[in-house]
Structures are given as structure tokens and as C-alpha cells.
Specification:
The complex is a heterodimer of chains A (about 110) and B (about 150). In chain A, about 65% of the residues lie in helices and about 0% in strands. By secondary structure, chain A is an all-alpha fold. Chain A has one domain: Helix Hairpins, CATH 1.10.287. With about 150 residues, chain B is mainly α. Helix content of chain B is about 65%, strand content about 0%. Chain B has six helices and no strands. The longest helix of chain B has 25 residues. The radius of gyration of chain B is 19 Å and the shape is elongated. The chains are: A mainly alpha (about 110), B mainly alpha (about 150). The interface between A and B is medium-sized, with 12 and 13 residues.
């Protein structure tokens, strides 16, 4: 249970970065930290104590495997996170191109 | 890929890159071709293949990397991956239903087994590798207005 709570702490650090920081790059890092905390939580749910990796090979019996479904979900989640991060960085670069700053409190002018 | 290219990082980085970039590319191809019998698969192999070109671009500058894999070729491979995956799925309609594994399953736990799954892995790796490299190229080539004037 304490591992799950540590996951929650990591997720809270990411949320803190998103809502509290003013630099766009730090906000993006916060988004990445929160996303990885969720991935870590999924993998921890799937873990069985002393389990082996869910790969079928000819000389092993199917028993005591860790759960394979959250691992597949997390793989998809990593792909989506990659595309998400690329989109965020692209938007941040365009914002810097237009406003010459990464500070979100100075981005007020609608017409540039 | 020799020492007459003035751009890029220092000589040590260039030499190590020249020695390792082929191994990285080969390892990516190994990961994606054994994706159905060992950990890995299309996504992981495609990322490693793309990272070898990113490695080349970081060490030698964007001109060398773009001469190895131009933007048009990247776009072609990315579109080709999606079309290949869709056509493999649609070919199942010839004998049954969508995503039907119509090829021979082969002997289990050998390289040539699994029917259409290795082909799907290759299509996914084309899409992922070319897409990741295209994202990196787009972020590198983005020029601000003031930089163009200088």
C-alpha cells in the first residue's frame, strides 16, 4: 500500500508543477511526471510478488505470471504520451515565437 | 560521414557515432523482427531505428542526417507504414474477416511463425520510426522569423 501512496505523491508533484509553475517548460515537465506516475501505478497493480514476465516460451509452464494486460495498456499510454509531449513542445515553441517569453503570466495580448 | 564535415560536435563524438550508429540501427531491426517471439515489437524497434538517425543528426548536424534520410523519404515511409498495416488488415477479408491471420502459422517459437504478426510489426515500425524522426526534424528545422533575417 505504501508503494501506491508513493505513486500518489509523485502524481501530486506533477500536479503541483502544472498548477503552480509559471514557465511553460516546467509545466510540460509536470505533465510528463504526472503521466509517468500513472504508468508506474498501473505496472504496480499488475505486479505479483515473485512473478515472472508474461512471455510464453516452450520450456516454461503458465503459472505465477505477472498480469499482462496493464503492461499492454501502459505501452499504448507511453505512445500517446510521446505524441502528447511533441504537441506540447510544438505549441510552446510557437508561443515563444509569438510572445518572446515562456512566462504564462506575460502572455496576455490576444492579438500579439 | 567523414572528418571533412565541419559542422556538428567534436571529433570524439563523431568517431564514437561512426562506430556505433550502425550497431544501433541493426539492433533496432533485430528487435522489430523478433517482436513476436521475444520482448519488443514494432514500436520499440521503430523507436530504436529512429534514434539511430537522431544520433546521427545530433553528432554530425542536420545536413548529414537529412542527406541519409531526406524529408520526402521520411514522409513516404510514414504514409507507407499506415497503408501497409491497413492493407494487411483488409487482406483478411479475402478469406474471412477483418484482421484474419490468413498466413501459415509456422512452427511456434521460431523466427518465421505467427502469420501476419511480423508483417504488422514491420508496418508499425515503419510508421513509428519515420514519425519519430519527422517530429525531431520538424523541431530542428523550425526557424523563427528573426533568425531568418540574420
Amino acid at each position: 500500500m505504501s508503494l501506491y501512496l508513493l505513486c500518489l505523491v509523485l502524481f501530486s508533484i506533477g500536479i503541483y508543477c502544472i498548477v503552480r509553475k509559471r514557465n511553460i517548460i516546467k509545466i510540460i515537465v509536470g505533465v510528463i511526471i504526472a503521466e509517468y506516475a500513472v504508468n508506474l501505478f498501473f505496472i504496480l497493480i499488475a505486479y505479483r510478488m515473485g512473478g515472472r514476465s508474461p512471455i510464453h516460451s516452450p520450456d516454461t509452464i503458465i503459472s505465477n505470471m505477472v498480469d499482462a494486460l496493464p503492461q499492454a495498456v501502459v505501452l499504448t499510454s507511453i505512445v500517446i504520451g510521446l505524441a502528447n509531449t511533441a504537441l506540447l513542445i510544438g505549441i510552446a515553441m510557437r508561443i515563444y515565437q509569438k510572445y518572446r517569453t515562456f512566462d504564462i503570466t506575460k502572455i496576455r495580448d490576444l492579438r500579439g | 560521414m567523414s572528418r571533412e564535415h565541419g559542422k556538428g560536435m567534436s571529433l570524439i563524438v563523431k568517431t564514437i557515432t561512426r562506430l556505433t550508429v550502425g550497431l544501433i540501427l541493426l539492433y533496432g531491426i533485430y528487435i522489430l523482427s523478433h517482436g513476436h517471439i521475444s520482448p519488443g515489437g514494432g514500436f520499440a524497434g521503430g523507436v530504436i531505428v529512429a534514434l539511430s538517425f537522431v544520433h546521427l543528426m545530433l553528432a554530425y548536424g542536420k545536413d548529414v542526417a537529412l542527406s541519409k534520410l531526406p524529408k520526402g523519404v521520411t514522409t513516404f515511409f510514414e504514409s507507407m507504414g499506415a497503408i501497409l498495416f491497413l492493407s494487411i488488415a483488409l487482406l483478411g477479408f479475402l478469406t474471412g474477416y477483418f484482421f484474419l491471420n490468413f498466413l501459415s502459422k509456422g512452427k511456434p517459437f521460431t523466427l518465421f511463425s505467427g502469420g501476419i504478426i511480423p508483417l504488422c510489426n514491420i508496418a508499425i515500425s515503419l510508421k513509428v520510426g519515420a514519425g519519430l524522426f519527422a517530429i525531431f526534424v520538424a523541431l530542428v528545422l523550425l526557424k523563427f522569423d528573426t533568425e531568418k533575417k540574420e
